[in-house]
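Below is how a single chain appears once it has passed through the pipeline. First comes the sequence as given, then the structure the pipeline wrote out for it. We keep one example in the README because the format questions we get most often are answered faster by looking than by reading.
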Amino acid sequence: MASMTSLKSTTLSIILFFIQFSLIKAHGGHGDNDDDHDSDGGDQDHAELHAKGLILVKIWCLIILLVSTFAGGVSPYFYRWNESFLLLGTQFAGGVFLGTSMMHFLSDSNETFKDLTSKSYPFAFMLASAGYLLTMFGDCIINFVIKQGSKKETRVDVEEEKSEEVGTDGNPVFFRTSSVGDTILLILALCFHSVFEGIAIGVSATKGEAWRNLWTISLHKIFAAIAMGIALLRMIPKRPFLLTAAYSFAFAISSPIGVGIGIAIDATTQGHIADWIYAISMGLACGVFIYVAINHLIAKGFKPQNKCYFDTPFFKFLAVLSGVGVIAVVMIWD
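Resulting structure:
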């Protein structure tokens, strides 16, 4: 009963914390009311100040994303997380990702393309498909790296009775490579889609949109970082703290790199070029988010080691439904 009460209170606190970020108005596209700012020099100065403020917000998003993900990655070294909370939290994050991709990114991309071109071709949907395939290709790289490591007789340093379960899971964070080069390559492959998630923050059109993308991505990254930290702890129970910090930092830095790329893209483009880049980026991000939501969070998710009461399809469905529902409510103020 104590663990159930702790789980409920922790879950409620996390949900309330993230909802407060979502109650911010935001809208997509750079092309709204462009004609109203072309003729007046004062308006141009105001736009420049607004751009500086927007970049500052994105930098704060970059810092928060880095710190929160790093903290999540090293936390299992000091704190034993409730497996039921991680199980349902990962499914909730999957629902948030799915709702954000369909109701926010795809919608903004489609509307921006309608303003940019009179052609009836479904550009946004095509780019979403491309983003999905691009992320799927990244997973193919991960699998290739794992197979190459197996050919070099790489071994998983876990207990004998757990080896079969780890081997059939197919989650790359459970594997360890024998050389520094293989380890770096594997980390790069693992962080492939995280860079594109960060770009979604970097190209945000408004401060509100940047904050909203931040809490959406942070929700996924924190749970993923915790799961990775737990996996490493099981793999090498007596590993030094510096190794834990190194793995966590490598995973944490991937999305901030994407944020930096997005800021550079957004800051160096204007007018219709910026609109095209925004529409293309949102379309690709939609596909990335859909793939991560379905294949990494909902389908695989967090696998508890011990028997868990909430590890049933029904409770997972409720968690995903809650995530989608939160985004559906947030979109009322979009």
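The chain is about 75% helix and 0% strand.

See the next section for the split statistics.
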